[in-house]
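User: I'm putting together a teaching handout on how multi-component assemblies are represented. Below are the sequence lines for each component of a complex, exactly as they appear in our records. Could you produce the 3D structure of the whole assembly as structure tokens, so the students can see both representations side by side? Please keep the chain order the same as the input.
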Amino acid sequence: MASRSDTPTPEGPRARATRLRRETILDAALELFGEVGFRAASLREIAARAEISHPGVIYHFATKEELLLAVLERRDADVSERFHLESSDGVTVLRNFVALADVNAHNRLVVELYVTVSAEATDPSHPAHDYFVDRYTRVVTSARTALADLQGRGLLVDPDLDLDLAARELVAVIDGLQLQWLLHPGQVRLADGVRAHLRRIATIDV
Amino acid sequence: MASRSDTPTPEGPRARATRLRRETILDAALELFGEVGFRAASLREIAARAEISHPGVIYHFATKEELLLAVLERRDADVSERFHLESSDGVTVLRNFVALADVNAHNRLVVELYVTVSAEATDPSHPAHDYFVDRYTRVVTSARTALADLQGRGLLVDPDLDLDLAARELVAVIDGLQLQWLLHPGQVRLADGVRAHLRRIATIDV
DNA sequence: CCTACCGATCGGTAGG
DNA sequence: CCTACCGATCGGTAGG
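Assistant: Of course. Below is the structure of the complete assembly, with chains in the same order as your input.
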């Protein structure tokens, strides 16, 4: 059985060194996957950035594919820890969408990773294809549930709003603005764009 | 001087064969660039799909980079021939955005190409980086000009709409929905999403 | 976690 | 527009 998170097993110096090394590799991989995508990224370049040999990377992550999934899962864990996109209060969820856009606007590497790899993963043979199909199902469902909550509370500008369409539009605005933000840095206001979109749909403060 | 387009120089059988061969190569390249991106696409695989040797591809397009730009330019020429995104009538321009989304919804290969390569090209070292930076400047400007026209004619829901933000949002909705459409085919209504977005902004029929 | 290595594949060139 | 070839680079393995 795993140790409780409030009384973790003490981490020895060896385990700590391994964990830090893995973090360094994940940092380098996130960076390169974002720059050139998964397929064009080489383990040797990731290894060089992590200051390790390329079989050293494979010692920690058995395959390049496993490394990509580890990068994505680490990021997911980080986001679900800091944001609550599963709350039952729709207003909270929508505010968290804006807050997440705001955080992303200060983390170009993460935005590059998601924009580049999600696009690459539209191909069914891509190793992260299933991951992104599931991810978008979850995110769109979360947006739809939030909007339905607002609809029930009379907080929508148009009470007959097409919730499926609107949920996908909200997610689309976030993704599309991120792409433009990468192409035209300094000219795109990520969080403002999402906020403006939400204000047009709901009579809430975001 | 080039021959007038209404009285073209007669095309000999040799020139015709060359043109058709180039079209075949461009078709194969569009397909593979869309599937795996520019960097991961190989000239050998493109050549195989065009049923030619890979030096044969290079005979027609000197480098892989030149081939990518030729694919994008052919597509641009096709779109600017069939749609008028530079009209001075804002309503026409916005209707053409919807019509273009509708056409794209029947051409998965083209959507894959733009979603995948535009994301990949956010990297400044990508051969199509400048192309996409310019392209988005043009498209966003076109949307902004159209919205400004509507504003002047009192056709906006919110007369104080932030035009820069709204123009980028419109383009973002189109791009974001295309990504979702590739990930969740059959569940995303591309043209409907763009139409719904426009109806929320302007009091026009689209 | 390193060095040395494997077979496969890459973009592009030479020569015809 | 083909065949044959070049040097470079790839993901992953063997052995320590």
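A couple of points students might notice: The first helix of chain B runs from residue 13 to 40. The mean pLDDT of chain B is 95.
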